[in-house]
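seq as requested:
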Amino acid sequence: MLRELVCHTSYSREKPDTPGRKPRAPDRSRDILSAAAGASMVLADITGDSANVHIEIGAALAAGVPVALLRKGPPGRPAFMLRDQQVYDYATDAELIGRAVRLTYPYRRFLQT
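struct tokens:
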């Protein structure tokens, strides 16, 4: 449910197609890593132990960005490189949303009028 609420960023780094060549897929990995490293905070769900998520967490940690880890299911030990990080376990989608709101609340932004 939370995944549907997240806005997807559109990338405009695509290179123009060359006549006679197959169109190239844009290199989004660099964009994703720079977004993680430049974020105010990274909220990551490590439930499936996805390698991509771990790489993004590593980029954020290397850049000194605060990271909050979420995991569905009973408490357990995270991957080796993340054992010094707090993991917030959740059981339901409602609990996931509640934890996400509490964790990100200090990083909210205000519009000045």
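The beta strands are 42-45, 67-72, 87-90.
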